[in-house]
Sequence to fold (324 residues):
Amino acid sequence: MVYLIAEVGVNHQGDYDLALEHLRAATQAGADAVKFQAFRATELASRAYAKDQLDFFAEVELTFPELGKLYEEAQKLEVVFLGTPFDTEAVDFLDQLPVPAFKVSSGDLTNHPLLAHVARTGKPIYLSTGMSNIGEIVDAVGVCRRNGNQDITVLHCVSLYPTPPEQANLLAIRTLAGAVDLPVGYSDHTTGIEACLAAVALGATVIEKHFVLDRSRKGPDVELSATPEELAELRHGVDKIYQELGDGNKVPRPGEMEVAQIARRSLFAARDIKKGEALTPDLLTCHRPGSGIPASQYSEVVGYRVIQDVPAGEMLLWEMLEGV
Fold:
């Protein structure tokens, strides 16, 4: 199956009750996991160099106790609670809840101290790769592995909000799979759900989609977020596409050989053939059904003699023939 993560992000605007509504609605829409961000604005941005960021994040920050209450509610709803930590204390807090896995944001792909701290929890890691190149991704995976963690899923991501369709670069999903030899997923910032569906067709095993109750809300992620109706549609779509992908082996599927008996062709007598006459190309034609000598054996049959009279239009069978 494809693991579907609803990313609430900061769409709760720092309001616990609104965050709770998002948790419940995402669960109802079919998300496997609902993800929140665990940060403290003062540990995230520098007052001296990024005051605008600090002020913004201070407005939308959920406290650790509030995140803890959301975790408890998630247990009641039987949905997975995931968190993206932005500092080591947030890692430790989420670990003790305990969350079953960690998401590392694209912005922290090169934050090797934080990556190492997450890796040392021993829990699965979803690693977003926006703004990065293959070398940086390989380095980040190496940090996780050197700190004892092999359970990593790399998420293709483009950190444009929203991401224009021509910038989504979904074929990078295949590139990543070949470069890191790890499960690969997709963290989406496009509008709509089409890119997520295409990502599943390209082999993504995890889809992360921003989620909002409705687009009348304010916030930097609202435009690219799925509503409850869209998330439910995405759930249905990824499940259907995953089922349709199959096992990749190119062999007849169950029931196809019965169709072949109808749709394929057999060898027939193009005109009356006398007993003992050798078959030549002008004596042969191909018609449906495919229950006689297959048309693919046309060349093999030429030169055989018939052991009985065969009227025009009769299906040829091996028991009618003898070799020369």
The chain has a mean pLDDT of 97. The chain has two domains: 3-245, 256-322. The radius of gyration is 30 Å.
